[in-house]
UniProtKB/TrEMBL annotation, chain A:
Biological role: Allows the formation of correctly charged Gln-tRNA(Gln) through the transamidation of misacylated Glu-tRNA(Gln) in chloroplasts and mitochondria. The reaction takes place in the presence of glutamine and ATP through an activated gamma-phospho-Glu-tRNA(Gln).
One example of a Gene Ontology biological process annotation: glutaminyl-tRNAGln biosynthesis via transamidation
GO molecular-function terms, A-Z: ATP binding; glutaminyl-tRNA synthase (glutamine-hydrolyzing) activity; hydrolase activity, acting on carbon-nitrogen (but not peptide) bonds, in linear amides
Name used for this protein in its record: Glutamyl-tRNA(Gln) amidotransferase subunit A, chloroplastic/mitochondrial
Reaction(s) the record says it catalyses: L-glutamyl-tRNA(Gln) + L-glutamine + ATP + H2O = L-glutaminyl-tRNA(Gln) + L-glutamate + ADP + phosphate + H(+)
Documented EC number(s): 6.3.5.7
InterPro entries assigned to the protein according to its UniProt record, in alphabetical order: Amidase, Amidase_CS, Amidase_dom, GatA
Organism: Carya illinoinensis (Pecan)
Keyword Transmembrane tagged: no
Any single Pfam family the record assigns to this protein: Amidase
Coiled-coil stretches: none
From TrEMBL, chain B:
Organism: Carya illinoinensis (Pecan)
Entry protein name: Glutamyl-tRNA(Gln) amidotransferase subunit B, chloroplastic/mitochondrial
InterPro entries, alphabetized: Asn/Gln-tRNA_amidoTrfase_suB/E, Asn/Gln-tRNA_Trfase_suB/E_cat, Asn/Gln_amidotransferase, GatB, Gln-tRNA_amidoTrfase_suB_CS
PANTHER family: GLUTAMYL-TRNA GLN AMIDOTRANSFERASE SUBUNIT B MITOCHONDRIAL AND PROKARYOTIC PET112-RELATED, GLUTAMYL-TRNA(GLN) AMIDOTRANSFERASE SUBUNIT B, MITOCHONDRIAL
One of the record's GO molecular function terms: glutaminyl-tRNA synthase (glutamine-hydrolyzing) activity
Gene Ontology biological-process annotations: glutaminyl-tRNAGln biosynthesis via transamidation; mitochondrial translation
Protein's cellular compartments: Mitochondrion; Plastid, Chloroplast
Catalytic reaction equation(s): L-aspartyl-tRNA(Asn) + L-glutamine + ATP + H2O = L-asparaginyl-tRNA(Asn) + L-glutamate + ADP + phosphate + 2 H(+); L-glutamyl-tRNA(Gln) + L-glutamine + ATP + H2O = L-glutaminyl-tRNA(Gln) + L-glutamate + ADP + phosphate + H(+)
Keyword Nucleotide-binding: yes
Ranges where the Asn/Gln amidotransferase domain occurs: 401-548
EC annotation from Swiss-Prot or TrEMBL: 6.3.5.-
Length: 537, 552
């Protein structure tokens, strides 16, 4: 695939060598009240509500209207709670009318990946085995969003239990990419990425075990953030691979993504692996855009991971990423190519560890306490039949793989070795991040591909995770943001740049990402499906 | 919501004894043996032996094997599960109370709901360290939890959080003294390891056997598993090992150690080998041992069974299997045959951080450890008490503490021991009370002993006062004063009483002086009656004799 220089709307005005849009100087911020940064829906909503320009009900209705129009094509959601959304919006309007304090996420419609538990909505994990399951509690991340005034709009589609890279492995439906509905949105958080891309919601939660937030963010042209392992509580996230799983954020801007991350971060006494580290106020970074005039990222050391531009990576993607690197240089960064020799070992190690943990984590879906129980004459059949009926082929494949890898006699050759590889990868990232402030790479080897293209070739699909799995193995934070387009679909297909930071340095990633995003002139990552929608984003 | 979900029926599961845990299945049998015992009452293998038991028809083979068994020795190891009495479960904040209605003490975590995560109760580590230290183990400064994976309806997550290759404590030993009636003697049994894990729930099977229900109250309750070295040779040794372990966990306050409630569960491994052979024979595991006496009897039965097979040339019929002890029939029966080793696919628990023990932490716990039973016994021995007395006093921490407190108040050791072992023990037994429930306090026992020793009251009056104190409390001084019980030690006063009695019984006096000297007892009794029991018996007898034998 050749790289094209198209931004969907500004092809004629485009002048860079790459797919990049050009850097522009921003106008200085006006005096009070400062206008929200142009890309933040969350800040715009807050502005609209507090200035009483729009009511929460009006805002909610505008999103729901768009959702009703686009959802038949996209199938992002497994469950939408329209009535509850409107009810909460009305309640919020009453609060505003009586000048009550409103939370920082007040009126913000948040979509939640369906493997994250919500007390008042079904949570299936995209699996038949949990069809109709209603959790008795909210995941900590969801509870925090609700506590800050956020409105959960519904539950989004995913590959069953997060196992997949296309969202085709959902037991219920196939989600389409808003940029080209014949293409996959990526996965496993495909529903959450597509919903934000199509502006069916403001922001969304996903989960990232091996790239499940970052790759769909890249495919759908939205910002996706995989936080450091331990930054966000996993309580209420249906475990796939516990040592790799994190809840991540999607937004249509770095600012929104950062605000959402701030809302859900921090220690949780219900998750022993959640960190006690203090959570910086990421959001405070987003309005200092008067600094953009010249070389705002001066002195930032950026390492471009050579192995991520090797054979097997789409030429167009390579061009876009090199263009992004040039853009970072223009912003003042010093970009050098670096090598992570253990990079290629990450994929096999990841699939062994993730499958091993999943074979254990999914044991609880036995039909005894919840989910569908197959009537059987004896216990083994009850287990076997309930699970055979409840799980899809990809989940079964991983359970089998993991069971095998943990078996007596194989443990040392597989699980233990994979753990050793994991240690190596951690060390090589540590070394690279001692030398560099951030590392960059593509988020995926290609842009979104066709629905069905890799469905019957699991290895090809697994190979697509090469860009992301290492980051999970190392437990590091990574931000993916759209940085250009390659040819495909009606208006080109977005490509995401992955920025990897040191552990718990999301603040830096968000700062760099925000400046990068603000300076990409004429790149509006709004899919053609809703391009003519007149809502100001 | 939780309640209804957890009691989901296992529709159409046949009752399948091969797959069931004995603790869940055979609870009903507990009451038969020990129905008169109070839960809190200390049981030891010794004491059990003294209780009436179901009559068991004698087996003819016992006679045979007793002869043959001289040529064989048994090798016995025990795995003990001790349920910790922490306020909340190991990984969630549910309390656990034995006997609560099904699924009333459950939450998303101990039910294994999707998305729920375990968070370790730090008390579990504290208790593990306590027991590890008390068992003279080496503690792992850096241990971890692992997942042990198998499917069973009482195991909500499909895996048990346990410890595999790095247990928290290893390589210790347990000292104990065998009861005198079993030949006595000191023993030191090796401890292979102590590790932390969580308990499973319970299955409740319907009468018809057509369905089962799951009660998850017990799921997630913390356990310590203590694995012994194969150091025991007889059923008695094994039972006494278990009893000592129970004593120890009670001394430490980490568990109530109650076998009937399943707070202490023993699985034993038994094998035999010809004497002189170093290689172990095929080991058989025995489950469903709900009392120390069943531990002892099940092992003895199993040894007999194996020796008989072996001596009849059928040693190959001893196979590696799990057998159930059937209390009613007093025999072990096959529960399941082991087809290869079960593969539990252990791997490190990713939801829990590693368990790191700092030196300061361990030292602080070591400093706070109470005196262990073994130390107490050695101390009592040095006080000059017989082993019988030592064992009686040290068996129950509450009795030992009562005794220690009495001694601390200056009471004579031997006298205190006698009072506790005879009259106080008898009273507790009759009234079905523990030593903590009687009204007598150690200080008053010491006072009582001193009052008798000092001659303020007679032994007989002392006994009366004791029962008053046991039942109603109060002080020795108060009772003596209230009832005017001070002993009469004035020879003149006693002499007057003797004179009175002699005068009132001229006929008997005649007989006495005629040679019927046995009548002295009669006179003594009469004088004592006149004194209302308060006359000093020694003085009384001395004066009585003088007057009886005086030439009139
Ligand atoms: Zn619980």
């Amino acid at each position: 695939m050749l790289s094209t220089l198209q931004s969907p709307r500004s092809l004629s005005r485009f002048s860079s060598r790459y797919t990049l849009c050009t850097l522009t100087a921003q106008s200085p911020p006006s005096t009070s009240p400062p206008p929200p940064p142009p890309h933040s829906q969350i800040l715009s909503i807050r502005h609209s509500l507090l200035s009483r320009r729009l009511s929460a009900a009006q805002l909610a209705e505008s999103y729901l209207t768009r959702l009703r129009l686009t959802e038949p094509h996209l199938k992002c959601f497994l469950h939408v709670s329209e009535d509850a959304v409107l009810e909460q919006a009305h309640r919020l309007d009453q609060m505003i009318a009586s000048s009550e304090e409103i939370g920082p996420l007040a009126g913000v419609l948040v979509a939640v990946k369906d493997n994250i538990c919500t007390a008042d909505m079904p949570s299936t994990g995209g699996s038949r085995v949990l069809e109709g399951y209603l959790p008795p509690f909210d995941a900590t991340a969801v509870r925090r969003i609700k506590d800050l005034g956020g409105i959960v709009v519904g539950k989004t589609n995913l590959d069953e239990f997060g196992m997949g890279s296309t969202t085709e492995a959902s037991a219920f439906q196939v989600t389409a990419n808003p940029w080209d509905i014949s293409r996959v949105p990526g996965g496993s958080s495909g529903g959450s990425a597509a919903a934000v891309s199509a502006r069916q919601c403001v922001v969304s939660l996903g989960s990232d075990t091996g790239g499940s937030v970052r790759q769909p963010a890249s495919f759908c042209g939205v910002v996706g953030l995989k936080p450091t392992y331990g930054r966000v509580s996993r309580y209420g996230l249906m475990a796939y691979a516990s040592s790799l799983d994190v809840i991540g954020c999607f937004g249509s801007s770095v600012a929104d993504t950062g605000i959402l991350l701030h809302a859900i971060s921090g220690h949780d006494r219900l998750d022993a692996t959640s960190s006690n580290r203090e959570v910086p106020d990421f959001a405070s970074r987003f309005d200092s855009i008067d600094l953009l005039e010249s070389k705002p990222l001066k002195g930032l050391r950026v390492g471009l991971i050579r192995e991520t531009l090797d054979d097997g990576v789409d030429n167009g993607v390579v061009s876009v990423i090199r263009g992004a690197a040039s853009h970072l240089e223009e912003l003042g960064c010093s970009v050098t190519e670096i090598s992570l020799p253990s990079f290629s070992l990450g994929l096999p190690a990841y699939y062994i560890l993730a499958s091993s943990e999943s074979s254990s984590n999914l044991s609880r879906y036995d039909g005894v306490r919840y989910g569908d129980q197959v009537v059987a004459a004896e216990l083994n059949s009850l287990y076997g039949d309930s699970r055979a009926k409840g799980f899809g082929p990809e989940v079964k494949r991983r359970i089998l793989t993991g069971t095998y890898a943990l078996s007596a006699g194989y443990y040392d050759a597989y699980y233990k070795r994979a753990q050793q590889v994991r240690t190596m990868i951690r060390k090589s990232f540590k070394a690279a991040l001692d030398e560099n402030d951030i590392l960059i790479s593509p988020a995926a080897p290609s842009a979104a591909y066709k629905i069905g293209e890799k469905k019957d070739d699991p290895l090809a699909m697994y190979a697509g995770d090469i860009m992301t799995v290492n980051v999970n193995l190392a437990g590091l934070p990574a931000l993916v943001l759209p940085c250009g387009f390659v040819e495909g679909g009606a208006a080109g297909l977005p490509v995401g740049l992955q920025m990897i930071g040191a552990g718990f340095d999301e603040e830096n990633l968000l700062k760099v990402g925000h400046i990068f995003e603000q300076t990409l002139e004429n790149c509006r990552f709004v899919p053609p499906l809703i391009e003519h929608d007149d809502t100001p984003w | 919501m939780s309640t209804t979900m957890a009691s989901t029926f296992l529709r159409s599961i046949q009752k399948h004894p091969l797959m069931l845990y004995p603790t869940a299945l055979f609870i009903r049998k507990n009451g038969v043996l020990y129905c008169t015992m109070k839960n809190t009452e200390v049981q030891t293998a010794t004491q059990e032996k003294q209780k009436p038991r179901i009559k068991v028809p004698p087996r003819t083979q016992t006679i045979t094997t007793n002869n043959v068994s001289k040529d064989y020795e048994a090798v016995i190891g025990i795995e003990t599960h001790v349920q910790l009495n922490t306020l909340t479960k190991a990984f969630c904040s549910c309390p656990y109370n034995y006997g609560s209605p099904p699924n009333t003490s459950v939450c998303p975590i101990c039910m294994g709901l999707p998305g729920a995560l375990p968070v370790l109760n730090s008390k579990v580590i504290e208790y593990a360290v306590k027991l590890g230290l008390a068992l003279n183990c080496k503690l792992s400064s850096n241990s971890k939890f692992d997942r042990k994976q198998y499917f069973y309806p009482d195991l909500p997550k499909g895996y048990q959080i346990s410890q595999f290759d790095v247990p928290i404590a290893t390589g210790g030993y347990l000292d104990l003294d065998l009861p005198v009636e079993f030949g006595g003697g000191h023993r030191k049994f090796g401890i292979t390891r102590v590790h932390m894990e969580e308990d499973a729930g319970k299955l409740l099977h319907s009468e018809s056997g057509s369905y089962s229900q799951v009660d998850l109250n017990r799921a997630g309750v913390p356990l310590l598993e203590i694995v012994s070295e194969p150091d025991m040779r007889t059923g008695i040794e094994a039972a006494e090992y278990a009893a000592e372990l129970q004593r120890l966990v009670r001394y430490l306050g980490v568990s109530n150690g109650n076998m009937q409630e399943g707070s202490l569960r023993c699985d034993v491994n038994v094998s035999i080998r010809p004497i002189g052979q170093s290689q172990f024979g095929t080991k058989v595991e025995i489950k469903n041992l709900n009392s120390f006496s069943s531990v002892s009897r099940a092992i003895d039965f199993e040894i007999s069974r194996q020796v008989q097979l072996h001596s009849q040339g059928q040693g190959d019929q001893i196979i590696q299997e799990t057998r159930l002890w059937e209390e009613g029939a007093q025999k072990t029966v096959t529960m399941r045959k082991k087809e290869g080793l079960a593969d539990y696919r252990y791997f490190p628990e990713p939801d829990l951080p590693g368990v790191i023990l700092t030196k300061e932490y361990v030292d602080a716990i070591r400093d706070s450890l109470p005196e262990a039973p073994e130390m107490k016994r050695r101390r009592y021995e040095k006080m000059g008490l017989s082993m019988q007395d030592v064992l009686f006093l040290a068996n129950d921490i509450n009795v030992a503490q009562f005794f220690d407190a009495t001694i601390a108040k200056g009471a004579d050791v031997k006298l205190a021991t006698n009072w506790i072992m005879s009259d106080i023990a008898a009273y507790m037994k009759n009234e079905k009370l523990t030593i903590n429930e009687i009204k007598l306090v150690p200080q008053e026992l010491a006072e009582l002993i001193a009052s008798i020793k000092g001659g303020t009251i007679s032994g007989k009056i002392g006994k009366e006062i004791l029962f008053e104190l046991l039942a109603k409390g109060g002080t020795v001084k108060g009772l003596i004063k209230e009832k005017d019980l001070v002993q009469i030690v004035d020879p003149v006063e006693i002499g007057k009483m003797v004179d009175k009695v002699l005068t009132e019984n001229p006929q008997q006096l005649e007989q006495y002086r005629g040679g019927k000297t046995k009548l002295q007892g009669y006179f003594a009794g009469q004088v004592m009656k006149v004194s209302k029991g308060k006359a000093n018996p020694g003085l009384l007898n001395k004066i009585l004799l003088e007057k009886l034998n005086a030439k009139s």
